[in-house]
UniProtKB/TrEMBL annotation:
Species, as recorded: Heliobacterium modesticaldum (strain ATCC 51547 / Ice1)
Keywords: Iron, Iron-sulfur, Metal-binding
Homology family: Belongs to the FldB/FldC dehydratase alpha/beta subunit family.
Lineage: Bacteria, Bacillati, Bacillota, Clostridia, Eubacteriales
Protein name: 2-hydroxyglutaryl-coa dehydratase subunit, putative
Cofactors required: [4Fe-4S] cluster
Length: 332
């Protein structure tokens, strides 16, 4: 069986597959386990401070509890600023860490250098990486179709859209099985369309921007209150929504690891195209990206509700009340 290798966020996953290894996005493993709150507690028992992001604490324990994962690719630039210390605590525990950095200024030469260093470490070459890009792009096209069926046809709900797109970070370690999973969603959407089961076209149309939520019921709650999430910003980026043959350019156009201004350009384009009424900006407690909320509010054309999450679990009462008030305001 091929070796598994952990990922702290989306990286050029084509390289991992080309090296004959199985990528495992630790974020997906953490948040979909039976008791993610327990993993956060265990990190705190190990000494992680209370005022550190819940995702970082969850990733720490998730990796240590997976005996099959003794190697991880950690993004040191373009993701969480706490990743450096996370890497070091893993190294103390005997985990081999491979750093990967997205250049802040999107410099093509530096990005190519990072990718070539990763290829050398894992034992991949450009020819194999190119083959895997073509294969993964076939799967990504189906995720893009699910995204279209969400915002244009209204036959896929926001949470299904979220799960289909966010999983493109590692394709659950099995692109063939992941493609079959996406085919199933598309087939269900076709049945919904045939039976006239499209979502309420009068519903408030929302964009969800920011890192994927640590809370478990955000999508089901907002949709139970008469709204529809028709745009999942970062998750869509994980699915590489570009018609791009050059893999270097593909990861330069990927907005998440670079400046907030690149992300806002993408957000504003999609908000207009998808006729979004309002934005929910999710921020994680103790994350530096909370500061970017200042800029996002100044540079977007529709109302923004900023929601903060801390630990895994359902929305708290205060957040539900704020969502209710926001949706009421948008519906008037």
């Amino acid at each position: 069986m091929a070796d598994k290798i952990g990922l702290t966020t989306t990286i050029p996953v084509e390289i991992v597959y080309a090296a004959g290894k199985i990528p495992v996005d630790l974020n997906n493993l953490f948040i979909t386990c039976d008791a993610p709150g327990r993993l956060v507690d265990r990190a705190e028992q190990a000494g992680y401070p209370r005022n550190i992001c819940g995702w970082i604490k969850g990733l720490y324990t998730t990796l240590l509890e997976q005996e099959s994962l003794r190697q991880v690719i950690a993004v040191t630039q373009g993701d969480c600023s706490n990743t450096h210390a996370l890497m070091e605590t893993w190294q103390v525990a005997g985990v081999a860490v491979i750093p990967f950095a997205f250049p802040y200024d999107r410099d093509a030469d530096l990005l190519r250098l990072q990718m070539e260093k990763l290829m050398q470490l894992l034992g991949a070459d450009w020819e194999a990486v190119g083959r895997w890009k073509k294969r993964l792009d076939q799967v990504r096209k189906k995720a893009h179709e699910i995204d279209r069926l969400t915002w244009e046809a209204g036959v896929v709900d926001g949470q299904t859209n979220h799960l289909a797109l966010v999983g493109c970070s590692d394709f659950n370690g099995d692109p063939d099985a992941y493609e079959a999973y996406l085919d199933g969603i598309i087939a269900e959407a076709a049945r919904n369309s045939t039976q006239g089961l499209a979502g309420d076209r009068q519903a408030v149309r929302l964009a969800y921007v920011g890192v994927p939520p640590i809370v478990s019921d955000l999508y089901s709650y907002v949709e139970s209150m008469g709204a529809r999430v028709v745009f999942n910003e970062v998750q869509r980026q994980f699915a590489m929504p570009f018609d791009e043959d050059d893999i270097i350019e593909q990861y330069r156009r990927y907005t998440y690891p670079y400046s907030i201004f690149d992300r806002i350009d993408d957000i504003n384009r999609e908000v207009a195209r998808r006729r979004v009424d309002g934005i929910i900006h999710y921020t994680q407690s103790f994350c530096y990206r909370q500061i970017e909320d200042i800029i996002l509010r100044q540079r977007t054309a529709v109302p923004v509700l900023t929601l903060e999450g801390d630990r895994p679990g359902p929305l708290d009462a205060r957040s539900r009340m704020r969502i209710d008030a926001f949706l009421d305001m948008l519906a008037r």
